Amino acid sequence: MAPRDSDTPSLIVLANFASALAVDLWEQGAVGQWARQAPREVWLTRPGDVLLTPVPVSEPFARYACGLTGVPRETVRIVTFRDRPGLAAADTVRTTPGLTDDLRAHAAARPGTRLLPLALDAPTLALAADLGIPVSPCGRSGPPVGAEALAVAALCNTKAGFRSAARETGIRVPYGHDCRGDELADTVRAVLRRSAAGRAVVKPDRSAGGHGLRFVARGDALPEAADADSRWTVEEYVPHTASVSAQFLALPTGPRPLFDGVMRTEDGAFTGYRAPLDGRVPAAVRAELGRWGAALGRRLIRHGYRGPYDIDAVVGDDGTLYATESNVRRTATTTPYDLVVRLTGGRPVHWSTATAEASGPLTFTDALGRLRARGLDFDSGRGTGALLYADAPGDGVRWRYAAVAASAAARDELEAAVGEAFQGPALQGPA
User: Where is the ATP-grasp domain (predicted)?
Assistant: First the structure.
């Protein structure tokens, strides 16, 4: 029998997109852009939970998400704080007058409350200590983590740190070098000399989602020297047929595979996902990606980390797999996966995330109406359909959604229908 909500620990979900784990905190453009996705974390909540978010959650979206998960809206608290330049989200929460006392009282009234962050960093551990609760990156039933996990999480979220871990664990990576900002031009020149494709990929050492990534071809102007204190990774560009990833949980018993899929990218930036990898890459490639993820997980576990992580890779034109980075935190696909599992009861399905562009600005209610009028919205009875997994975009035009279907073909058909629904006229449909 599944545990009742009252039997499970309460969560304080911290949408800490502002974390030095993923990007320099002064990269306000990137931090602000990512933070706009924070409302999606409401899908993780159950009665008695709190969501701490740097951007407001619209009431129509909150009621929509709670309606599908069967959680009475009034039983979930949503607290909005405003990110501050150069400050981690957890530090912002800690220094917001009255908020820590409020959260401490909430936790005291609910023994067993845990803090679930998107990213594990030192400010998050400090916030948990202030509240007198453990940090549990695995969620309400997972093991807590402590300060010993910080170093390995921080290291493997850097490009250089991942490449070092890859060498130690037998994970294949593209040819490349790590360098300081004042060595950048010389390093790019050296990698281009070696590159069979005549291209190099320039990556800030700490970045995510393709932020700051650049492609340089032989004959292009070389990048100007950057701040000498900055760190960079320059790799040989690998012509490839697919960008793939696999996500795992690092647990005391070992790494647990969660899901894998093909990443949608545009100029190296993440734009969506299709899962699982069934039939999209050769079985041997998929198996190798799984072995690499398990090897990385064992290393993380040895150093005290418990929680989600992924490994990203490309499938070269010749079928060779090359790992490109790891993300030791919740990623853009973690919450969509969690909500798909929650809404389908864990049944095997094919799912994806994508963006549909509307023909003009829509409210959340209007956008949902486009899906419902055409019978495309997620049906709990069938366990399939389209989900608006994120709140209304600022422009009302580019809508993030998840497609859930029984087969890859049905999922692709659903995506096409969603695109047509947002481009076509509004239809009168069921309320």
Answer: 163-357
Query: Given the structure tokens 């699982």, which residue do they identify?
Result: 276
Other beta carbons within 10 Å of 103: 26
Domain boundaries, the chain: 8-144, 175-236, 347-423
Task: Say how far apart CA 127 and CA 328 lie, in whole Å.
Answer: 20
Nearest-CA neighbor of 300 among 156, 95, 100? 156
Identify the sign of the CA torsion 308, 338, 171, 316.
negative
pLDDT tens string 54-97: 999 999 999 999 999 999 999 999 999 999 988 999 999 999 99
Residues 89 and 216: their CA atoms lie apart, in Å, by 34
Give CA–CA dist 390/148, Å, rounded: 34
The fold for domain 175-236 equals: Dna Ligase; domain 1 (3.30.1490)
Burial of 12-21, coded b for 16+ CB within 10 Å and e otherwise, reads bbbbbbbbbb
Q: What Rg value do the Cα atoms of the chain yield, rounded? A: 22
Whether residue 351 contacts residue 408, with contact meaning beta carbons closer than 8 Å, is answered with no
